[in-house]
Amino acid sequence: MKKFVFRFFFFSVFCSLFYVVLILLYGTIVPASFAVNFNYFGGMGFTRQRFDEVSKIKNVDLVVAGSSHAYRGYDPRIFKKSGISMFNLGSSSQSPLQTRYVLGKYVTKLKPKLVIVDVYPVLFGVDGLESQIDLISSGLIDKDIIALSFKINNIKLYNTLLFGAFNNEFHIKKQKLSDNEGDTYIPGGYVQSFRHLQFKKTRFKQNVNISATQLEAFKAGLNELRSQQIKFVIIQAPFSRSNYASYQNNDEIDRVFSSLGEYYNFNKILNLPDSMYYDDSHLNQRGVNIYNAKLIDTLSKRGHFRRLSMNN
Q1: Phi, psi of 185 (to 5 degrees)
Q2: What residue intervals traverse the membrane (predicted)?
Q3: Residues 54-65: pLDDT tens digits?
Q4: How confident is the model at residue 159 (pLDDT cuts 50, 70, 90)?
Q5: Could you tell me the pTM of the whole model?
Q6: C-beta of residue 267 within 8 angstroms of C-beta of residue 257
Q7: What three-state secondary structure class fits 265?
Q8: Range of 238's domain?
Q9: Residue 140 forms part of a structural domain
């Protein structure tokens, strides 16, 4: 029996080491097109550049968090013209699980007077895998990321986490910043695009589903801001009319968000033409110019940005 246990132990150690070596070789030399249970290939919207930059930033008036609707929808240059310094902590497909993480990691350092939590309702129904992989592939690995990875619990995520930890130490593989031609990174976390919507996807009527896990994470993140006495507003940025209209329970979703804090759905405030979008989900620069001006005006009338100006 002792001999069996001894052999089993060393066999387990050998398999574990072999698996680690296999993942490291796989991530280093295998093309992205062959990836099945691994993803460390980047091209996700300048996430690494954004979080490299934020490590050098302190004390801003405004922080924005959320998905690509955040980092493609809030231009620091426009806010600066109104005397408001801001940083955009958006990342691709950022679900409430990751929003809570990035705010928890950076809001104390940035010390904002106001946080805009941008919500894209569809992402309240996902598992958070895509966003978690994006953060890990951008070098964000710490005890909280590891804990969150175990909560999501996916083999692709574990493999990416293993390779990411190795790559952070030895810098073997460099992540691409973005796959989209014409995208330009603007200091402050924003991604600029002048492309415009070429065609509309066929959209079928559907409902937005909100998972209990994501809603719990969202509420917890808001409560953490409250505990630090940091003011926040919940904003749904506009996306194309055909896309928005395909969801049948928008009013129900609005009631959920309205119950959690000060909330604005700009799909109901602005009616922008397709020429203001670069795809059916994201604004282009023309659309951002109009949206940000309207947002600043709306929040100024509620006293938010006037209060910021008085404190500057």
Answers
A1: -80, 130
A2: 7-29
A3: 999 989 999 999
A4: confident
A5: 0.89
A6: no
A7: strand
A8: 44-128+176-311
A9: no
